[in-house]
Amino acid sequence: MGEKRKRSEEVGGDDEQGGGKKQILPSMIKNKDKRSALHAKLKHQKKIEKRKKAKARDAAEKRALELGPPEKKIPRTIENTRENDETVCKPDDEELFAGNDADEFSSILNRKSDPKILITTCRFNSTRGPAFISELLSVIPNAHYYKRGTYDLKKIVEYATNKDFTSLIVVHTNRREPDALLIIGLPNGPTAHFKLSKLVLRKDIKNHGNPTSHMPELVLNNFTTRLGHRIGRMIQSLFPQDPNFHGRRVVTFHNQRDFIFFRHHRYIFESKESKQSDSKGNKDKDVKGEKSSQGKMVARLQECGPRFTLKLINLQHGTFDTKGGEYEWVHKPEMDTSRRRFFL
Questions:
Q1: CA distance linking residue 76 with residue 151, whole number of Å
Q2: CA angle, corner 172, sides to 171 and 177, nearest 5?
Q3: Is 43 helix (H, G, I), strand (E, B) or coil?
Q4: Considering the entire predicted model, what is its pTM?
Q5: Which of 153, 124, 134, 188 is nearest to 316 (CA)?
Q6: b/e string for 151-161 if b means 16 or more Cβ within 10 A?
Q7: CA pair distance 13, 20, nearest whole angstrom
Q8: Smaller CB count within 10 Å for the chain: N or C?
Q9: pLDDT tens for residues 258-283?
Q10: Are 344 and 225 in contact (CB under 8 A)?
Q11: For residues 160 and 115, is the Cβ–Cβ distance under 8 A?
């Protein structure tokens, strides 16, 4: 046994002297003293290498500061690496602006007429449907709710057109849960069918606020393509074009990866006290502990609800017609060929 141990230690010593062709780990040495010595040696070498890398990094940073501030690195995301789309709107697109003056929403967006919205449900309503509709009525000004009953949707469209309504919203429910929205522009369309998901009512939002009757500000974000521009104008036609800024209400439709996120907020201005301790050596001990409070205005957002997400399923030309209607755009599963391909 002693001869084998000596041979193994001799072989290990030869490998170390031979230039380190074969790396010897401390676990390969049975002698405790030599094993601990090799472990300390390896640890010291790692420490030296770490110091060299730190010095090189500090030197590179100093050189970069002398040359100038480094370029800010932009992280790669799915949004900024999206596939090129020919239908992306450009600020100098004259054809797009000419079409805006002649589309179905021009009279409302040019303030020639005020929006008037009719909201109804599908034939089989649910328990959360009325609660969602009551919150929609508080979000959209000049909106009116009518019970669906057994009336056909085409007759409701005719009735709403005769009563000078500008849009019709149908809340569809499935298994006692709202799952779709149908927005019909009156009298000439178009009709947009959205899938509704992740609905959170006002009562389920923590520290929610109660909206006022002021006209809200409307924020539309990231509707960049021709289709997204048309959907954005359709959503814009649901709200009056004269917001009351004293009400501090904001309604946001944020498009991200073809999902439209809806949020309803009110912004609040508060005076926050900032404490500053002014202690001087000449003052007494009681005076040292005194603190002077100065007021500072702080703005924050308070969510009013509801909160939900929309995804466009199809856009139909004209009013609702399942048999003979022409579709401007329809989402199909074979269109989802890449995660970086978006349509809005």
A1: 51
A2: 105
A3: helix
A4: 0.73
A5: 188
A6: eebeebbeebb
A7: 10
A8: N
A9: 999 999 999 888 887 765 544 444 44
A10: yes
A11: no
